[in-house]
């Protein structure tokens, strides 16, 4: 079974359909249920507040615990642009709660199941631009760097149980925050890509599929950003 968090995000809605062709999939969303036409019967949606420990634990115990193979794709995240001096510490905590502690909590809950089954896949997401850091991205950048760290630790600690953990770092896609930017800012970002092209969602799916099928790709970080430069 595939568990996809952030199923209602722009990227989540683009990749959930091909993912449902690989295995049964539960798309996790919060408040806004995705509307996707011609979706496979293998796909179900589940509303869940990933920052709530009790809700997340109940979800695992009721929907996931008996599955033989688990694939966790951590796409859910939040980004708030603000200078560090102007950021309230509680806002920073909120970013970490969803971007880091939510996938960490989910990982800890499913790891015992994966260990018993001697199989598991973790796929985390970040962004090349976000990890490099930029003005106003303190909470996002630091939380995503923490995600990179936990992915590496999982790969080292549990690789012996045929459990792999890998990270995908995205560039610019026609989804999410990019679509909300001004035309001028969009053009500036596209000019950072040698090909001057936005990312192809099929490449995200292909990389996820590769991570799922491979038992030797572990602890990797793959950039899908067209060689984006700063």
Task: Give keywords.
alpha/beta; seven-stranded parallel β-sheet; 230 residues; Rossmann fold; 7 strands
SSE order and pairing:
Blueprint: E1 2-5, H1 10-20, E2 25-29, E3 43-47, H2 53-64, E4 71-74, H3 89-117, E5 120-127, H4 128-132, H5 138-158, E6 163-170, H6 177-180, H7 183-190, H8 201-213, E7 221-224
Parallel strand pairs: 1-2, 1-4, 2-3, 4-5, 5-6, 6-7
Helix pairs in contact: 1-8, 2-3, 3-5
* Category by helix and strand content: alpha/beta
What's the tally of helices?
8
- Stated plainly, the CATH topology is called Rossmann fold
Please, what is the average pLDDT?
92
- Report the biggest beta sheet as strand number plus sense, adding barrel if it closes: 7 strands, parallel
Number of domain modules: 1
CATH homology superfamily name: NAD(P)-binding Rossmann-like Domain
> What is the beta-strand fraction?
15-25%
């Amino acid at each position: 079974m595939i568990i996809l968090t952030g199923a209602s995000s722009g990227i989540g809605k683009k990749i959930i359909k091909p993912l449902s062709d690989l295995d049964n999939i539960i798309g996790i969303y919060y408040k806004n249920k995705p509307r996707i036409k011609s979706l496979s019967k293998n796909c179900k949606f589940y509303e869940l507040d990933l920052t709530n420990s009790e809700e997340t634990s109940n979800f695992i115990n009721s929907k996931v615990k008996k599955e033989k193979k688990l694939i966790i794709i951590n796409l859910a995240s939040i980004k708030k642009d603000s200078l560090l001096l102007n950021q309230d510490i509680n806002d920073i905590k909120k970013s970490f709660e969803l971007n880091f502690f939510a996938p960490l909590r989910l990982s800890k809950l499913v790891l015992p199941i994966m260990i018993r089954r001697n199989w598991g896949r973790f796929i985390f997401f970040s962004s090349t631009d976000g990890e490099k850091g930029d003005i106003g991205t303190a909470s996002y950048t630091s939380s995503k760097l923490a995600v990179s760290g936990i992915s590496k630790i999982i790969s080292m600690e549990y690789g012996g149980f045929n459990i792999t953990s890998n990270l995908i770092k995205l560039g610019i896609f026609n989804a999410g925050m990019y679509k909300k930017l001004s035309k001028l800012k969009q053009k500036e970002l596209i000019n950072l890509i040698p090909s001057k092209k936005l990312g192809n969602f099929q490449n995200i799916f292909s990389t996820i599929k590769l991570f799922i099928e491979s038992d030797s790709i572990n602890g990797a970080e793959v950039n899908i950003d067209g060689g984006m430069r700063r």
